[in-house]
Specification:
heterodimer, A: mainly beta, Methylamine Dehydrogenase, Chain H, 4 domains, four-stranded antiparallel beta sheet, 5 helices, 58 strands, B: Methylamine Dehydrogenase, Chain H, 20 helices, about 30% helix, RNA binding (chain B), Nucleolar protein 11 isoform X3 (chain B)
Chain lengths: ~700, ~675
């Protein structure tokens, strides 16, 4: 007995180091665990929900606007890069699913959801804009300005047109709400709420908001939000911590709910007007519902039903979809809280979603030089990974013989945020793009010195890129422009040559957001925001094939070495493998689809943002989302729903037979999280970029202190 | 809170109320109207809201009405019996009773009953029962004798039980009482012998009854002044057998047994009864409302001109003869809240109504629940108090005094004022108000003039209010005269919150030295002094913290029995952070009318421990916990609640400490796990 017990581990060790790794184990990796990516997402300023498309627009304090598809597993399918001067204060959808924002620069901006750029920006000439709302029909826009003016704009098919001003108020208009019939509007200002008649544009009521709270008189009472209900009730939320109900017909206060010791910042009402949600500066979201006074009476009243504390900081904005409460604020999380009573199927969709990180890759890596390029809003950082000569067993931290180096800090010029960036595999090229400029740099490494040279005279059509990719041999550059075309550029020492532009299919202007190139450089795959992946033959410069369309957007894309199999991950957590030479799905992919993915795999709530390979391991696919990474070994059997998908503990004294039987293709690790990037540097080396939430919180302003326990 | 509202009289010109009072007051088919029958020849229909008669009918000279008139709710007609056997039926249009329908019956009628939902039911003197319709069909039908010889009907009432009329009547024979329950529709009759305990010797003076699903609860007021209750099943188990029912004591000594005039008892609602009679043998008659559940006197109203010992209760009106006039006293019992009972309790200065502080003396009524000797004590005291109030001085012209105020020295004014207050004048209120205004006026003109003693005297007359002399408190605030402020807080019913707030600010900010010098009424913290020196530590602190303790001897010192255990005393030992003087002042605030939201921010200056308890009280206020506080059984609950809250607070504070510790531990843990910004690790994938 004793002898055998000694044999077990000994044999395992021997195998691990002999290189003859059995099918059961994936083997050991050295993992560069990187936590110096000092990324802090911007706070959320506005959310706007569109019922028709079930999409959510989110604007951040840096001006970035993101579009989430709530039907596609809450995937962030589009984004518009931020702009230093374009601080968004209001965001709204109008008829025909057009998206508008307005901000403190005084401009109203319309976004092109196809080309993913700003369609136009128009000055409202009222000073900073604090609020904006679309008419119930969606054909008019109303903005509230710093100078106390409320301006009405007519939405024309390709622009907006100023129509008239309403009666000017004393101070800035911080909130606006349109009566569902379109006849009246409520405007929240400082210390009062005005009710306007839309036809005449004159204020018919002025409702003064009490500055006092709990007997303490504040200097001002700011009406942060108003909501106009069909029955004429106006609900206001203000800086004194009150939620108040007003009768707009008489201009009188009907009911007051003091709910917080701090500001109540936001309000959103459900379309049915039977429920609304407010967010406070203490990070609490309160749900109010219209409930019957007694069980069988028709008399109903608004009752504060549920408090939710999913935020640590100000809840700047809330939205109310038919099935969920959506909130966002300074703590940068987008929280989607499904209303259990409205969710028909109690599946994983009924779970709370907290979205913190962008659903796209901000990091690229040079495998050959072991470099990482970090993309921030206004600069890039280039780091060289360290090294070690030591070895160890699972879990060991190895002593560093060389630490990681910060090689380069590249600041952008201008107010625009960086859209995308890339470093070539050899590390000699860096490219990035903002909304109006494209930059390409040539890097020279001489021992420890590094020199950077900008490649000038970029062609005019390379103004703005949504995605940039270098070929594996660093001889070609692929650029997806926002006009839908794909440019192929040949890189020479210090210069370039435009080889070709793949034009979008006739009639579409859909922008391509994801690119993948085969390691041999022959194939280029590109995916847009809606389904459909196009594969181009780079040698012959023509479209090779289009992968059959799938209902859910693509979240990551990569082409495997040798086989040229295209691996595609979708937001519903499905992964397909498509053989480019054969123009069809591979046997393995069919087998996976036949058996179906493990239910736990499908229930993950962050999308796969990166797929990687290593040429020496053709059977392995590396995928990761924010909370796990997985290496799929295609040679192993697929797990079924009865199999344990993720086993955090190493196998102990099981025999090889048992291990072989229980082993399956999905090797999952959840050690590194939140995981923003993972790549195979070589056969036995991984790099993992983590961004611990605590590090982000440490960079936020301190929250309003609240005692957790009573008293 | 049960309350009697202002009385009003119905003009009684047409009525001839003899010394025995009226024959009866019955409801008409309109809620506001009553049929009043006197002991002579007249029936009057009154409309209460108009305080005047709508109609009046008399029988011929020489005839005598023997049963009070009732309204037939099914036809709207009125029915009366005169000369024992003659039945008359008429309606509003009829003028002369002599010309209306008449039927002569074969036996003497004791009483006609009429309630909504059924035809009138006649009870004959011999105990037989007939419906009106059956009787009219054959007026001369034979009426059987049910009662034995010498058995006399003392009291009778008709109920509707599940839509069936049930007639109950009580008879007496040789000092024994029998209860008969007659189901009118099924003609089943059950007889019960009323067994009485020690009170057997006393005579029952008044009955009343209420019914719930299964039992008729008959209450009787005996000549010993106590109220007894007897439960009689509506549906007898065996109607044939003569069964016995026992009466039990319900309320002790509600009226003086030896009072000369009559007494009457009537049930108002589930918890309240009204008693008419003299509380003390010597005193004037009173109408009092007692809460059966809490064993407390809720309110009472003096009826100095005497009554006939008859009391009727219909709808929300209590009707009685007060002197020669028919008086209506509306009775209201609103669902009360603790806020109303505690925070906003106001001193009524209407001498007619003595509002009982709604506090139960738990010490007294604890243990032996129903009307023990202890329980009686405070009531007596209160009654005596009330008499003192009512016999307060009153006096002659006052112009002179006003001129004195404007000119003379403080000493002189004080003397004159004392003289003036010794006698009562008709419009005492207004004069006192004028005097204060006068004094204050002179104060403003003449800064050296400080008639403090006069003001104190005037405030103590109980007739002043804030609105009568708004300048008074302002001046006291200006001078930080805490004693005067305390007096005003205790006496004035209508202090605006801003002024209350200003008082509170002063009370919190004033130095302890100046407090020591001030003569502060320490009654509300009367046992505080003992505790500071003695072993009884916990009680006064608790009283103070609760802010419950009403002044005087009805103190709700719920925890006074707690310190018996030494560890409790030890636990509560942390002495009160405010001095007794300041505590008394704060209590004065807590007793005046205020809203919590307004005052609480200022109370923040008191240590957090106390604020928490105040918060808790507010929670209680919001939750309408009055009942819990009121019933004697709740004493234990409240003590344990209090203990619970206290332990909860300490749990919370410990939790907060633990949270901080955990956070520190987490930090340490993070430091341990913190592998820095960069590391190379070995990972084995299985």
């Amino acid at each position: 007995m004793r002898a055998r017990a000694h044999v077990g581990p000994g044999r395992r060790e021997a195998r691990a180091w002999s290189g003859e790794r059995g099918a059961a184990g994936m083997g050991e990796f050295k993992v560069h665990r990187v936590r110096f990516f000092n990324y802090v997402p911007s706070g959320i300023r506005c959310v706007a929900y569109n019922n028709q498309s079930n999409r959510l627009a989110v604007s951040r304090t840096d001006g970035t606007v993101e579009i989430y598809n709530l039907s596609a597993n809450y995937f962030q399918e589009k984004f518009f890069p931020g702009h230093e001067s374009r601080a968004t204060e209001a965001l709204c959808w109008t008829e025909g699913q057009r998206l508008f924002s307005a901000g403190l620069n005084g401009e109203i901006v319309e976004y092109d959801l196809q080309a993913l750029n700003v369609k136009y920006a128009m000055d409202a000439f009222g000073g900073p804009i604090w609020s904006m709302t679309a008419s119930p029909s969606g054909s008019q826009l109303l903005v509230g300005c710093e100078d106390g003016s409320v301006k009405l704009f007519q939405i024309t098919p390709d622009k907006i047109q100023f129509e008239r001003n309403f009666d000017r108020q004393k101070s800035r208009i911080l909130s606006l709400s349109w009566h569902p019939s379109g006849t009246h509007i409520a405007a929240g200002s400082i210390d009062y709420i005005s009710v306007f008649d839309v036809k005449s544009g004159s204020a018919i009521h002025k409702m003064i908001v009490d500055r006092q709270y709990m007997g303490v008189s504040k200097r001002k009472c700011i009406v942060w939000g108003v909501a106009f209900l069909s029955d004429g009730t106006v609900i206001s939320v203000d800086s004194a911590g009150k939620v108040q109900f007003w009768d707009s017909a008489t201009g009188t206060l009907v009911k007051s709910h003091p709910i917080a010791n701090a500001d109540v910042l936001s309000i959103a009402v459900a379309d049915q007007e039977d429920s609304f949600v407010v967010g406070t500066a203490e990070g609490t979201v309160f749900h109010f519902q219209l409930v019957s006074v007694t069980s069988n009476s028709s008399e109903k009243q608004w009752v504060r039903t549920k408090p939710f504390q999913h935020h640590t900081h100000d809840v700047r904005t809330v939205a109310h979809s038919p099935t969920a409460l959506i909130s966002g604020g300074t703590d940068t999380h987008l929280v989607i809280r499904p209303l259990m009573e409205k969710v028909e199927v109690k599946n994983y969709d009924a779970a709370l979603r907290k979205i913190t990180f962008p659903h796209r890759c901000l990091i690229s890596c040079s495998k050959k030089r072991q470099l990482l390029l970090f993309q921030f809003a206004h600069h890039l950082e280039l780091w060289r990974l360290g090294s070690t000569v030591a070895t160890g067993k699972n879990g060991d931290i190895l002593p560093l013989s060389k630490n990681a180096d910060h090689l380069l800090h590249l600041k952008t010029k201008g107010p625009e945020n960086i859209i995308c960036s890339c470093i070539s595999s050899c590390g000699s090229w860096i490219a990035y793009s903002t909304a109006s400029r494209f930059f390409l740099y040539r890097l020279n490494y001489e021992h420890d010195n590094i020199s950077l040279k900008r490649v000038s005279k970029m062609p005019a059509f390379l103004r703005s890129a949504l995605q940039i990719l270098f070929s594996e041999d660093s001889k070609k550059l692929f650029v997806a422009s926002n006009q839908g075309s794909l440019h192929v550029i040949q890189l020479l020492e210090g210069s370039f040559k435009h080889l070709h532009a793949f034009q979008p299919q006739s009639g579409t202007v859909e922008a391509m957001c994801l690119l993948a190139v085969s390691p041999d450089g022959n194939w280029l795959a590109a995916s847009g925001t809606s389904a459909g992946v196009h594969v181009y033959n780079v040698k012959q410069l023509k479209l090779h094939c289009t992968v059959p369309a799938y209902n859910f957007p693509v979240t990551a894309l990569a082409i495997a070495p040798n086989t040229n199999n295209l691996v595609i991950a979708h937001s519903d957590q499905q992964v397909f493998e498509y053989s480019i030479p054969d123009k069809q799905y591979t046997e393995w992919s069919r087998a996976v689809q036949k058996q179906g993915f493990h239910h736990l795999w499908l229930q993950r709530d962050t999308p796969i943002t990166h797929i990687g390979f290593h040429s020496k391991r053709p059977m392995h696919i590396l995928l990761h989302d924010a909370y796990m990474f997985c290496i799929i070994d295609k040679s192993l059997p697929l797990p079924n729903d009865k199999t344990l998908l993720y086993n955090p503990l190493p196998p102990t004294s099981e025999s090889d037979v048992v291990r072989r039987r229980t082993a399956h293709a999905f090797k999952i690790s959840k050690i590194y999280k939140p995981l923003l990037f993972m790549e195979l540097l070589d056969e036995g080396t991984l790099v993992a970029v983590e961004r611990p939430l605590d590090d982000i919180i440490a960079q936020l302003p301190p929250p309003i202190k609240k005692k957790k326990f009573g008293t | 809170m049960a309350a009697l509202e202002d009385e009003f009289t119905l003009s009684s010109g047409v009525l001839s109320a003899g010394p025995d009072g009226l024959l009866g007051v019955e409801q008409s088919n309109k809620t506001d109207q009553f049929l009043v029958t006197d002991r002579g020849r007249t029936v009057v229909l009154y409309k209460v809201s108009d305080q005047k008669p709508l109609g009046s009918w008399s029988v011929k000279q020489g005839q005598l009405i023997t049963c009070s008139a009732v309204c037939n709710f099914q036809t709207g007609e009125y029915v009366v019996v005169h000369d024992n056997k003659v039945l008359r039926i008429w309606n509003n249009e009829d003028v002369n009773l002599d010309k209306v329908f008449k039927a002569t019956l074969s036996a003497e009628v004791h009483k006609i009953h009429s309630v909504r939902g059924t035809e009138p039911v006649l009870l004959f003197k011999e105990g037989a029962v007939r419906g009106l319709e059956a009787l009219l069909a054959e007026p001369q039908q034979e009426i059987e004798a049910v009662l034995s010889d010498g058995e006399v009907i003392r009291w009778t009432k008709l109920f509707m039980v599940f839509r069936h009329p049930v007639l109950i009547f009580i008879t007496e024979k040789h000092g024994n009482y029998f209860v008969y329950v007659h189901m009118v529709n099924s003609h089943t009759l059950s007889k019960y012998t009323l067994l009485r305990g020690q009170e057997e010797k006393s005579v029952i003076q008044s009955f009343t009854a209420s019914v719930d699903r299964k039992f008729i609860s008959v209450m009787s007021l005996s000549s010993d002044g106590c109220v007894y209750e007897t439960l009689i099943p509506v549906y007898p188990t065996d109607p044939e057998e003569n069964q016995r029912v026992v009466s039990s004591l319900l309320l002790r000594a509600v009226v003086s047994g030896s009072a000369p005039s009559g007494v009457a008892l009537t049930v108002l609602d589930r918890d309240h009864v009204a008693v008419l009679g003299s509380p003390l043998s010597a005193s004037k008659e009173c109408l009092s409302v007692w809460n059966i559940k809490f064993q407390t006197l809720q309110t009472s109203k003096e009826l100095p001109q005497g009554t006939s010992g008859q009391l009727w209760y219909y709808g929300e009106n209590l009707l009685m003869l007060h002197g020669q006039s028919l008086t209506v006293i509306p009775y209201k019992c609103e669902v009360s809240s603790l806020a109303g009972a505690l925070g906003k309790l106001k001193h009524s200065h209407d001498p007619g109504i003595q509002v009982m502080p709604p506090f139960v003396n738990w010490e007294a009524s604890q243990g032996d629940g129903l009307g023990s000797q202890h329980a009686e004590q405070p009531r007596r005291i209160l009654r005596r108090r009330k008499i003192e109030v009512s016999s307060q001085p009153a006096v002659p012209p006052s112009k002179q005094l006003l001129t004195t105020i404007m000119k003379d020295s403080e000493k002189h004014i004080e003397m004159e004022l004392r003289k003036f207050l010794a006698v009562k004048t008709p419009d005492f209120h207004a004069i006192v108000g004028d005097l204060v205004t006068g004094l204050l006026g002179r104060c403003q003109v003449e800064p050296s003039f400080c008639p403090r003693n006069c003001l104190v005297q005037l405030i103590q007359t109980h007739v002043l209010s804030y609105s009568l002399c708004p300048g008074l408190m302002e001046m006291a605030v200006k001078k930080t005269d805490v004693q005067l402020l305390q007096l005003c807080l205790q006496r004035f019913p209508d202090i605006p919150e801003s002024v209350t707030c200003a008082c509170l600010k002063i009370f919190l900010s004033i130095g302890d030295d100046s407090l020591h010098q001030a003569e502060i009424d320490m009654e509300s913290v009367f046992d505080y002094g003992d505790s500071v020196q003695g072993d009884n530590v916990a009680a006064p602190v608790d009283v103070l913290q609760n802010g419950f303790s009403p002044e005087g001897d009805t103190c709700l010192s719920c925890c006074q029995e707690v310190p018996a255990k030494p560890q409790d005393a030890a636990a509560a030992t942390p002495t009160c952070p405010v001095t007794p003087q300041r505590a008394a002042l704060l209590n004065a605030i807590l007793h005046s009318g205020y809203s919590e939201a307004f005052l609480l921010p200022h109370l923040k200056d008191i240590p957090a421990q106390h604020i928490t308890i105040l918060d808790w009280i507010c929670l209680l206020l919001d939750a309408n916990f009055t009942v819990v506080v009121m019933i004697p059984e709740a004493k234990r609950l409240l003590i344990s609640l209090y203990k619970f809250v206290k332990s909860q607070i300490s749990v919370y504070s410990e939790l907060n400490k633990i949270e901080v510790s955990f956070r520190e531990l987490q930090k340490l843990n993070q430091e341990k796990n913190n592998r820095g910004l960069y590391s190379i690790e070995v990972l084995e994938l299985f």
